[in-house]
User: What shape does this take?
Amino acid sequence: MAEKAQALLVVDVQVGTIDPTDPVDRTVLQNIAGLIGQARASGAPVIYMQHHSLQEGDTLVPGHPHYPIHPDIAPRQEEAVLVKHSSDSFLRTDLDTRLKRLGVEHLAVVGCATDYCVDTTVRSALSHGYDVTLAADGHVTGPDQDIPVETIIAHHNRTLAQIAIEDRQIRVVPSQEIVF
Assistant: This one.
């Protein structure tokens, strides 16, 4: 898939979605930073999605310390940061228009939260006509009372890798195997 014009989509990696004390979160953040560096070096677009919650009391709102993109992977001035209000990065945003304008046909996806925004965005990307590579070690989610984070991630990696859609592909691979 590397022959198609490609972009890196960084979904909701905000201060409030990454726990710097959690080893899984730290590793995911490092993997995302590595992919951003590789994409930038190759000239591939890096597009950031920033969740802006509409739920009362949520911390992912402008002005709250949890809202900014995580400083370890901060966007450059010329990189797009698109605000979204739902789990789907395509819903009511101009993401699809921007990608088409850039000639992108293939998205590499990383981010937070595996079981919400990452999963929904990957599925939506396929439906919008993009091939997708999900970095298996480039997404994370918050803890669940009954299910360990690693189990949630593994489940979504396995499930997303098996989705079939006509004329589109999804690959789920370690970040080291993603090439821009």
Remarks:
- The first strand starts at residue 6 and ends at 11.
